[in-house]
Fold:
Amino acid sequence: MAPKGDMARTREQNDSVLELCKKEGGVFYPVCSVHPSDGNEAEGEIDRVAGLGAKCIKLHPNTQGFDVADPEVEKIVRRAAENGLPVLFDAYSPFDAYQAWKFVMLAMNVPDARIILAHAHGAHFLDLMVYGILAKYQWWKRNVWVDISATGPLFSGSPFAEQFRWLLRKVGIDRLLFGSDYPLDKPAEAVEAIVNLEFRPEELHRIFFQNASELFGI
Structure:
């Protein structure tokens, strides 16, 4: 993730990711980062990496030390949307009890954005129910996706597995994304955990491939 107040390092890190993906010829897809507090320079960096082939912007409230409700975050998400880039957030914070609802407001304020919530709010996954409710309203853009890295292995085989699967279906199978949370979880073990959640084959196809293919244009 991009550091605060060090655009030279931010550009260097993004360039290294872009160069690696270019060398590997389609094996990897570049996800770049900026820090919301860097304002206009961060917005300019989004323009730059978008032009160089970035597929997504990642932001991490805990690691980067920002509040999701900060107006600077909305500006970054809006700029990413203007460039056609989804924004991937780490979406589990044990330090901010209201973070889940801040993501809802962010999605409402920037309806053209495509927001990905990594880790499905962790231990607070029930907060995702709001997206099942919002889907009933015609004005809701369904512009939020949920990455089930970490939570898939955490709840698979647990007493919460059935509730977790039920809730993810309420969010919408077409809005779920597989993630391994490497290196904390090994990819093969993460895949096995999602399979063990007993989704149907057509659901697994969407989770493992189709949704990401459509979202990132790959």
Remarks:
- Residues 1-90 form one domain.
- The radius of gyration is 17 Å.
